[in-house]
Amino acid sequence: MSEQSTAQNSEQNSAQNGEQAGGQTAPHPLAPDWLSPITDSAGLEQALLPADAQRDDAGRLTIGGVDVETLAAEHGTPLYVLSEADFRRRARQYRESFAAAFAPHAEVDVFYAGKAFLSTHAARWAAEEGLCVDTASGGELAVALAAGVDPARLGLHGNNKSDAEILRALRAGVGRIIADSLEELERIEQLAAAEATTAPVMLRLTPGVHASTHEYIATAHEDQKFGLSLTPPGGVPGEDGSADGASDGVAAHRGSAAWTAVERALAGEHIELRGLHCHIGSQIFEPEGFELAATRLIGLLGAVRAAHGVELAELDLGGGHGIAYTEADAPRHPAQIAEALAATVVSACARRELAVPRISIEPGRSIVGPAGVTLYRVGVQKDVQVDLDDGSTAMRRYVAVDGGMSDNARGVLYDADYSAVLAGRKVVGEHALSRIVGKHCESGDIVVRDVYLPTTTARDDLLAVPATGAYCHSLSSNYNLLTRPAVVSVADGRSQVLIRRETEEQMLGRDTGYSS
């Protein structure tokens, strides 16, 4: 590889960067197959940005009626921007779609998965739109409680909850504690007994479904840390949970961790077993995995009824539904998701002669992810010559911004792809294949791996990276001692700070050798 400034030899490099005379953009040999050459980002913006994003008369991107240059001037960059209207719209879509799909068979609770992004404002938005809130730690539970969410509409997850977290949930009166292991179920029982109360419990099961997603966010296969296995030692669960051919499925489940947990929970004096839970992973587009998981859990519900004469009241089918990060992603609408799951659940329950239990789901990413955009300022640019397999070369343009892996770790964690658009002005014409990188001391500090940006992109231009509402602020860090960005919401032409920008003084305040 060799490099040169973008200010040098621009005409010589233009063809190698995917540019053509006459303002056209040619396919680039380094571009992935799914990435389309563009001369105008309008199509990308319509597909990936929040529904209330548009360009103003000056060509600036606006979100919620506020233009990005104003946001950057008032709040600095990098900056997380959340469209309140888009968040609320997506929350309503889930609530209304699932209520309609399961009527008249069952009622549905939609739990907003707070791990995607949680602040007191976001928790209130979810509650005001009729959603419950799912928390995955004592800290998330503290935020939801501070937001004033009804504790009965909260859930507490976690594969390794501390006694303090369980006690806090019990004392607050949360609606459900999702037990993740036999040991934890026992500890919940003991702590509830000590508090002279009864713990409302859901059992998180691993149904043995291999979801089509990154290894680190697939959570329903056997070899991982979450949940209670449906499979007994040496067994393989069938599609309906009755691999042994028994009509009631009891023998197929007996001896599994899930079966043992059900029996212990039913026998526990201080446990109210509400039902079963599963979550097969995240950023999943195909419906088959969700449907198979639902079928297997209903198989266990039938076996429990056959063995114990009890029909458990609730079934939580988790979340994990994918969103569009790039033009290659084709997410399903909540109505499609709901109708497919309702058909599966109603059919599986009918085969078992079970009443359809109360259903719950846990969307997080698919509510807040598309509602969020991150704004960056462009800094250094350079073109790098890359050797190709056929012996020729091509130029890749590197565009550095004022953030990176400390505000979006998903690229380094999951090889996640993103897109980006020039936000402060509108450009129609030549675009160059570019790689947007951060300012951290890591070669893997890549914000957007492959994107076509205008060839006129310059220092101090604003870039907008769509679909960053989920798992960006939540995973943010102080790597290289960068301070964490602010989170602002936009609605009706106004912006509001949800989470303040961290200052160096605040960061240094944790260092015991520092005195202000």
The residue ranges in which pLDDT falls below 50 over 5 or more consecutive positions are 6-15, 213-220, 238-246
Sheet of most strands:
10 strands, mixed
Strand content: 15-25%
**What is the number of beta strands?**
24
Cα distance, first to last residue?
A: 46 Å
Q: State the helical fraction.
A: 25-40%
Output the radius of gyration: 25 Å
Q: For the residues shown, what is the average pLDDT?
A: 91
Shape: globular
Query: With helices defined by DSSP (H or I, 4 residues minimum), what is the helix count?
Result: 15
Q: Supply the helix-strand structural class.
A: alpha/beta
Compact overview of the structure:
This protein is of the alpha/beta class and 516 residues long. The protein has 15 helices and 24 strands.
Describe this structure in words.
With 516 residues, the chain is an alpha/beta fold. It is built from 15 helices and 24 strands. Strands 1, 7, 17, 18, 19, 20, 21, 22, 23 and 24 form a 10-stranded mixed β-sheet that branches. It has an 8-stranded parallel β-barrel with strand order 8-9-10-11-12-14-15-16, surrounded by 7 helices. A hairpin with a 5-residue loop joins strand 4 and strand 5. Helix 7 packs across helix 8.
